[in-house]
TrEMBL record:
It comes from Streptomyces coelicolor (strain ATCC BAA-471 / A3(2) / M145). It catalyses: a primary alcohol + NAD(+) = an aldehyde + NADH + H(+); a secondary alcohol + NAD(+) = a ketone + NADH + H(+). Residues 10-334 form the Enoyl reductase (ER) domain. The lineage of its organism: Bacteria, Bacillati, Actinomycetota, Actinomycetes, Kitasatosporales. Its EC number is 1.1.1.1. NCBIfam families: PRK09422.1. It is an enzyme of class 1 (oxidoreductase). GO terms for molecular function: alcohol dehydrogenase (NAD+) activity; zinc ion binding. Its cofactor is Zn(2+). One of its GO terms (biological process) is acetaldehyde catabolic process. PROSITE patterns: ADH_ZINC. Belongs to the zinc-containing alcohol dehydrogenase family. This is Alcohol dehydrogenase. Keywords: Metal-binding, NAD, Oxidoreductase, Zinc. It holds the Pfam family ADH_zinc_N.
Length: 340
């Protein structure tokens, strides 16, 4: 099988021929049909974060494909069934977080495409209990971005407890943000989308944003305040200054949900303003299996739209450059059936 491999941080990925992996007990082998390029994969390939993966590794945590082989003890999945393999590759199932519905906080988790090989490959392994069945009517190419970008923003809005009479700011209308705009609309909120390119602002409008702010030319905090301030702001742009900007546009009692993970990012939180205004700063990491099931359900019901461009896996290095250059409309998805 072909796989795109990070051999060294910051160097181009290498397309390699590798033997098909064998599923161990509780695992399945998945023939990957589609695999999304999340900005996290770029952070992984660059070794951006304090906890780093160990090269050589195969990135990718938006892999979707057909179960090809069952490991020992797997009875609830069938060969030929379509599954998605998210960032949360596996959690322990026994700790306080797992038992209280917060498996995403499990300290014994394994992350797909980071702590084990991921979806930038023709075949991949998945732990059967965490491989998410994809419902009928959801294509592999659509399911891929939902598997991280979708579930992460859907969860971030849950964490912010967004309601219908609220103003929600979505900072960064990329892979994550284009879905965040839609989930915030589904939650009934008024949505303000913020970005730095005309195309993304136009896309946000097409996807239902009520207002847009161009962070190149407008003062994000002042604009949000002009509309009463945000009840919730999702920080999805890979830029610490963008976190600072939306934080300053919260209304009293508002919540900043930090989602993007820029390398070496810090946020100055003014103590006086935070106390007096009763604002919160919350971190949010992906979503649970149940969150992902809900994300797939919404898509199967025709309530969300995935904006994607498909590419062959061989184009992986050019694709990374395109994401970093802000040239991608929303999400790139590798089509593993496209050859090359
Ligand atoms: P992306 O590159 O597709 O999108 C980023 C968007 O931010 C782009 O549209 C870009 O134009 C916009 N942007 C850049 N500067 C801006 C600014 N100053 N103000 C407003 N917008 C600006 O990236 P993505 O795949 O959507 O991922 C975003 C981030 O979220 C990454 O850091 C990724 O690692 C992180 N992430 C976190 C989680 C989590 O669970 N917390 C999950 C997935 C991704
Ligand atoms: Zn656990
Ligand atoms: Zn991701």
């Amino acid at each position: 099988m072909k796989a795109a491999v990070v051999r060294e941080f910051g160097k181009p990925l290498v397309i390699e021929d590798r033997p098909d992996p064998e599923p161990g007990p509780g695992q399945v082998l998945v023939a990957v049909e589609a695999s999304g390029l999340c900005h996290t994969d770029i952070h992984a390939a660059h070794g951006d974060w304090p906890v780093k993966p160990t090269p050589p590794f195969v990135p990718g945590h938006e892999g979707v494909g057909l179960v090809e082989k069952l490991g020992d003890g797997v009875t609830h999945l069938a060969v030929g069934q379509r599954v998605a393999v998210p960032w949360l590759g596996k959690a322990c199932g026994r700790c306080e977080h797992c038992r209280s519905g917060w498996e995403t906080l499990c300290e014994d988790q394994v992350n797909t495409g980071y702590g084990c090989d991921g979806g930038y490959a023709e075949k991949m392994l998945a732990w059967a209990d965490f491989a998410q069945p994809v419902p009928e009517g959801v294509s592999a190419l659509d399911a891929a971005p939902l598997t991280c970008a979708g579930v992460t923003t859907y969860k971030a809005l849950k964490v912010a407890e967004v309601g219908p009479a609220q103003l929600v700011a979505v900072s960064g209308v990329g892979g994550l943000g284009h879905l965040a705009v839609q989930y915030a609309k589904i939650a009934g909120a008024r949505v303000v989308a913020i970005d730095v390119t005309d195309d993304k602002l136009q896309l946000a409008r097409e996807l239902g944003a009520d207002l847009v702010i161009d962070a190149r030319t407008q003062d994000v905090g002042a604009e949000l305040k002009r509309h009463g301030g945000a009840h919730a702001a999702l920080a999805l742009a890979v830029n610490p200054a963008a976190f600072q900007a939306v934080n300053s546009g919260l209304r009293r009692g508002g919540k900043l949900v930090m989602v993007a993970l820029p390398a070496h990012g810090t946020l100055q939180v003014p103590i006086f303003d935070t106390v007096l205004n009763g604002t919160s700063v919350i971190g949010s990491i992906v979503g649970t299996r149940q969150d992902l099931a809900e994300v797939f359900q919404l898509h199967a019901e025709g309530r969300t739209k995935v904006i994607r461009e498909t590419r062959p896996l061989a184009a992986v290095n050019d694709c990374i450059d395109e994401v970093l250059g802000g040239q991608v409309k929303a999400r790139i998805v590798f089509d593993l059936n496209a050859g090359g």
